Protein backbone atom coordinates (compact mmCIF):
# COMPACT_ATOMS: atom_id res chain seq x y z
CA UNK A 1 0.00 0.00 0.00
CA UNK A 2 1.32 3.43 -0.95
CA UNK A 3 1.90 6.31 1.44
CA UNK A 4 -0.30 8.78 -0.39
CA UNK A 5 0.95 11.81 1.54
CA UNK A 6 4.60 10.96 0.79
CA UNK A 7 3.72 10.67 -2.91
CA UNK A 8 1.94 14.05 -2.86
CA UNK A 9 4.93 15.64 -1.10
CA UNK A 10 7.33 14.13 -3.64
CA UNK A 11 5.31 15.51 -6.57
CA UNK A 12 5.20 18.91 -4.91
CA UNK A 13 8.97 18.87 -4.39
CA UNK A 14 9.56 17.94 -8.04
CA UNK A 15 7.28 20.57 -9.58
CA UNK A 16 9.90 21.27 -12.25
CA UNK A 17 9.10 17.80 -13.67
CA UNK A 18 5.33 18.29 -13.95
CA UNK A 19 4.08 17.58 -17.47
CA UNK A 20 2.04 20.80 -17.36
CA UNK A 21 2.37 24.09 -15.54
CA UNK A 22 -0.48 25.00 -13.18
CA UNK A 23 -3.18 27.10 -14.83
CA UNK A 24 -5.83 29.24 -13.20
CA UNK A 25 -9.39 29.44 -14.50
CA UNK A 26 -11.48 32.38 -13.26
CA UNK A 27 -14.72 30.40 -13.70
CA UNK A 28 -13.88 27.07 -12.06
CA UNK A 29 -11.04 25.18 -10.46
CA UNK A 30 -8.49 23.80 -12.90
CA UNK A 31 -7.22 20.22 -12.56
CA UNK A 32 -4.95 17.85 -14.43
CA UNK A 33 -3.98 14.24 -13.78
CA UNK A 34 -0.19 14.11 -13.43
CA UNK A 35 0.29 10.36 -13.09
CA UNK A 36 -1.42 7.02 -12.75
CA UNK A 37 0.05 3.81 -11.31
CA UNK A 38 -1.36 0.41 -10.45
CA UNK A 39 -2.39 1.47 -6.95
CA UNK A 40 -2.85 5.28 -7.13
CA UNK A 41 -3.24 8.37 -9.26
CA UNK A 42 -1.91 11.92 -8.80
CA UNK A 43 -3.82 15.11 -9.60
CA UNK A 44 -2.73 18.74 -9.72
CA UNK A 45 -5.40 21.30 -8.75
CA UNK A 46 -5.43 25.09 -8.70
CA UNK A 47 -7.62 27.39 -6.67
CA UNK A 48 -8.25 31.10 -7.11
CA UNK A 49 -9.53 32.96 -4.04
CA UNK A 50 -13.12 31.92 -3.39
CA UNK A 51 -12.99 28.70 -5.43
CA UNK A 52 -14.14 25.53 -3.68
CA UNK A 53 -15.36 22.00 -4.13
CA UNK A 54 -18.77 20.87 -3.05
CA UNK A 55 -18.98 18.52 -0.08
CA UNK A 56 -17.90 15.17 -1.56
CA UNK A 57 -16.38 11.77 -0.98
CA UNK A 58 -13.91 9.84 -3.13
CA UNK A 59 -15.98 6.77 -3.97
CA UNK A 60 -14.20 4.59 -1.41
CA UNK A 61 -10.65 5.59 -2.40
CA UNK A 62 -8.32 6.75 0.34
CA UNK A 63 -5.68 9.37 -0.28
CA UNK A 64 -3.97 12.57 0.70
CA UNK A 65 -3.50 16.11 -0.46
CA UNK A 66 -0.61 18.51 -0.05
CA UNK A 67 -0.67 22.30 -0.36
CA UNK A 68 2.11 23.19 -2.81
CA UNK A 69 1.49 26.94 -2.57
CA UNK A 70 -1.07 29.26 -1.03
CA UNK A 71 -3.53 28.41 1.72
CA UNK A 72 -6.57 26.14 1.70
CA UNK A 73 -9.32 25.35 4.19
CA UNK A 74 -10.63 21.80 4.53
CA UNK A 75 -14.17 21.48 5.87
CA UNK A 76 -14.66 17.90 7.05
CA UNK A 77 -18.08 16.44 7.83
CA UNK A 78 -18.11 15.04 11.36
CA UNK A 79 -20.90 12.79 12.61
CA UNK A 80 -19.70 12.73 16.23
CA UNK A 81 -22.57 12.83 18.69
CA UNK A 82 -25.06 11.49 16.17
CA UNK A 83 -25.47 14.62 14.08
CA UNK A 84 -23.54 15.97 11.13
CA UNK A 85 -21.52 19.16 11.42
CA UNK A 86 -18.61 20.84 9.67
CA UNK A 87 -15.15 20.95 11.27
CA UNK A 88 -12.72 23.36 9.56
CA UNK A 89 -8.95 23.07 9.33
CA UNK A 90 -6.56 25.60 7.79
CA UNK A 91 -3.78 24.13 5.66
CA UNK A 92 -0.96 26.42 4.62
CA UNK A 93 1.79 25.98 2.10
CA UNK A 94 3.83 22.85 2.81
CA UNK A 95 1.07 21.16 4.82
CA UNK A 96 -0.81 18.03 3.83
CA UNK A 97 -3.12 15.43 5.21
CA UNK A 98 -4.11 11.82 4.70
CA UNK A 99 -7.69 10.57 4.60
CA UNK A 100 -9.45 7.22 4.54
CA UNK A 101 -11.95 5.74 2.14
CA UNK A 102 -15.00 7.10 3.99
CA UNK A 103 -13.77 10.71 4.22
CA UNK A 104 -16.30 13.42 3.29
CA UNK A 105 -15.06 16.99 2.92
CA UNK A 106 -14.85 20.13 0.84
CA UNK A 107 -11.83 22.30 0.13
CA UNK A 108 -12.00 26.08 -0.17
CA UNK A 109 -9.50 28.82 -0.98
CA UNK A 110 -10.50 31.40 1.63
CA UNK A 111 -7.21 33.22 1.13
CA UNK A 112 -6.30 36.27 -0.90
CA UNK A 113 -3.83 34.56 -3.23
CA UNK A 114 -4.06 31.61 -5.62
CA UNK A 115 -3.28 28.13 -4.30
CA UNK A 116 -1.91 24.95 -5.88
CA UNK A 117 -2.35 21.48 -4.38
CA UNK A 118 -1.36 17.90 -5.21
CA UNK A 119 -3.89 15.11 -4.57
CA UNK A 120 -3.24 11.37 -4.52
CA UNK A 121 -6.01 8.75 -4.55
CA UNK A 122 -5.65 5.01 -4.18
CA UNK A 123 -7.07 3.19 -5.89
CA UNK A 124 -7.72 5.62 -8.74
CA UNK A 125 -11.03 7.46 -8.50
CA UNK A 126 -13.97 5.80 -10.19
CA UNK A 127 -16.74 7.90 -8.64
CA UNK A 128 -17.37 10.84 -6.34
CA UNK A 129 -20.59 11.54 -4.49
CA UNK A 130 -21.50 15.18 -3.88
CA UNK A 131 -23.58 16.05 -0.84
CA UNK A 132 -25.46 18.85 0.84
CA UNK A 133 -25.58 19.23 4.60
CA UNK A 134 -29.28 19.72 5.33
CA UNK A 135 -31.32 19.81 8.53
CA UNK A 136 -31.56 16.00 8.51
CA UNK A 137 -27.85 15.45 7.86
CA UNK A 138 -26.05 14.63 4.64
CA UNK A 139 -28.17 14.47 1.50
CA UNK A 140 -26.83 13.06 -1.78
CA UNK A 141 -26.90 15.56 -4.64
CA UNK A 142 -25.16 13.65 -7.44
CA UNK A 143 -22.84 10.73 -8.09
CA UNK A 144 -20.20 11.56 -10.71
CA UNK A 145 -18.28 8.91 -12.63
CA UNK A 146 -14.69 9.00 -13.89
CA UNK A 147 -14.62 9.31 -17.65
CA UNK A 148 -18.04 10.95 -17.73
CA UNK A 149 -17.91 14.05 -15.50
CA UNK A 150 -14.13 14.41 -15.22
Explain what you see.
- The protein has 150 residues and is mainly β.
- Helix content is 7%, strand content 47%.
- It has 1 helix and 11 strands, in the order αβββββββββββ.
- The strands form 3 sheets. Strands 1-2-9-4-7 form a 5-stranded antiparallel beta sheet, covered by helices on one side. A 3-stranded antiparallel beta sheet has the order 3-10-11, with no helix packed on it.
- The radius of gyration is 15 Å and the shape is globular.
- The mean pLDDT is 95.
The gyration radius over C-alpha positions equals 15 Å
Count of beta strands: 11
Task: Give the strand order of the largest sheet, numbering strands 1, 2, ... along the chain.
Answer: 1-2-9-4-7
Number of helices: 1
Written as H for each helix and E for each strand, in order along the chain, the element string is HEEEEEEEEEEE
Keywords: Dioxygenase, Iron, Metal-binding, Oxidoreductase
Family: Belongs to the cysteine dioxygenase family.
Organism: Actinoplanes campanulatus
Protein name: Cysteine dioxygenase type I
Give a nutshell description of this structure.
The chain is built from 1 helix and 11 strands, in the order αβββββββββββ. The protein has one helix at residues 4-13, and strands at residues 30-36, 41-47, 55-56, 62-69, 72-78, 85-91, 96-99, 105-108, 115-122, 127-134, 137-145. The two termini are 25 Å apart.
Amino acid sequence: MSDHLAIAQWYSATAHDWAVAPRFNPVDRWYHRLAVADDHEVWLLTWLPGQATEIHDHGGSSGAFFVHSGDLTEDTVSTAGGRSRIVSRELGEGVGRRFGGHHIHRIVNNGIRPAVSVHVYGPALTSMTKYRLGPDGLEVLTVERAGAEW
